[in-house]
Design goal:
The chain has 18 helices and 10 strands. By secondary structure, it is of the alpha/beta class.
Length: 383
């Protein structure tokens, strides 16, 4: 039996689940309906777009100057919509600014329910950046506000209570065993108020190492980049060390929990003369797929990660669970719960679909010849 983390149980749960909360938010928004975006942009939408790339202070000043004649709730709605677009584009700093302004507006007019929702948005951005402590604080604040309002139906309260309540239905999407981390009692009978979907990202770590070894058989020292703030790191490291021994390889573990750590990690990789790199499963790394791919190219190190975005950005290879398949299943469960079904009656789904993406252009740039059998197993080849 694998040793469990000694982290606070609340935070331990949250860190496994928060990375996919946006899926639940998206489907709940769809369920509640959205206005037709084919109409010309409103004054509030125009202002939100105008300030979307400004610093927080400059954006705040622009809102005070140009937004004084706008209805606060319309402005907040436009700010949140623009922030969501920025978040999808990976522009988390500017998305955070707009969510912050939306919350400040709600605070001024005393709308505590909207404040709670904004805290959820801000917390989700923190999670995407790997800032789990800040995310936890936001969700706890949102929960306190929502409980004070006694609004158990508020979606913001549901998301905030994700790791702290036993009364609000929750749909999760994670890449580890939800039984092992204490989210559900069993896969077939979740009990409680949580259910969801698991993917093979964590379990696929050893397979990524095997694929990388198949593509770069001459590399005997393999670097493993992990986020020490992620509670799965210890298990992932042990599993890959074991897999490496069976292949006659050595693993050099590198740590990074913020952007500033990347350059130092790659410098250590070069000093250790690692011939290839495996990037460990982590929400923060996923949000930085483009940057990690660029570093891998700059240092000419064959690298594999879980997300397709990494290979598309120029990384050599990706292998992991299909996000499209996982999100589809999360959407189905979210819809069923919104229609009245109980999470306890919905078995945890296991998404077993995995995708192998190979960037042939990067392989050629690295002087690698992709074996035909490996190429034949690829779900997608980028040329």
């Amino acid at each position: 039996m694998k040793e469990k983390s000694s982290l606070n149980p609340i935070k331990h749960r949250m860190q496994y689940c928060l990375s996919s909360l946006f899926v639940v938010i998206a489907f709940c928004v769809i369920a509640n309906g959205q206005p037709n975006n084919q109409n010309p942009p409103t004054a509030a939408e125009t202002l939100a777009l105008k300030i979307s790339k400004l610093s927080l202070d400059d954006a705040r000043q622009a809102v005070a100057t140009d937004g004084s004649a706008l209805l606060p709730d319309e402005l907040e709605k436009a700010l949140n919509a623009q922030a969501e677009k920025l978040e999808l584009d990976g522009d988390y700093p500017h998305a955070m600014n707009l969510y912050q302004l939306s919350m400040e507006s709600a605070q001024k007019r005393g709308d505590q329910k909207s404040v709670a929702g904004s805290l959820i948005d801000i917390g989700t951005v923190h999670t995407s950046q790997g800032r789990y402590d800040q995310a936890s604080e936001c969700f706890e604040q949102s929960l306190k506000i929502s409980e004070g309002l006694n609004d158990k139906a508020a979606m913001g309260a549901a998301l905030a209570a994700k790791a702290m309540t036993t009364t609000i239905p929750i749909v999760f999407s994670i890449s580890v065993d939800p039984v092992e981390v204490g989210l559900v009692a069993s896969l077939n009978r979740p009990a409680g108020t949580l259910t969801g979907v698991t993917s093979l990202n964590a379990e696929a770590g050893s397979k990524r190492l095997e694929l990388l070894h198949e593509l770069v058989p001459g590399a005997t020292v393999i670097a493993l980049l992990v986020n020490p703030a992620n509670p799965t790191t210890e298990t992932l490291s042990k599993d890959l060390q074991a897999a490496a021994r069976t292949l006659g390889l050595q693993i050099r573990v590198l740590h990074a929990s913020a952007e500033r750590d990347f350059d130092a990690a790659f410098a250590i990789l070069v000093q250790a003369r690692a011939g290839a790199l495996v990037i460990g499963t982590d929400a923060f790394f996923t949000s930085r797929s483009n940057q990690l791919a660029a570093l891998a190219i700059r240092h000419a190190v064959p690298t594999v990660y879980q997300s397709r975005e990494f290979a598309v950005a120029g990384g050599l290879m990706s292998y992991g669970g299909s996000l499209a398949d996982t999100h589809r299943q999360v959407g189905v469960y979210t819809g069923r719960i919104l229609k009245g079904e109980k999470p306890a009656d919905l078995p945890v789904q296991q998404s077993t679909k995995v995708e192998l993406i190979i960037n042939l252009k990067t392989a050629k740039a690295l002087g690698l010849t992709v074996p035909l059998p490996l190429l034949g197993r690829a779900d997608e080849v980028i040329e």
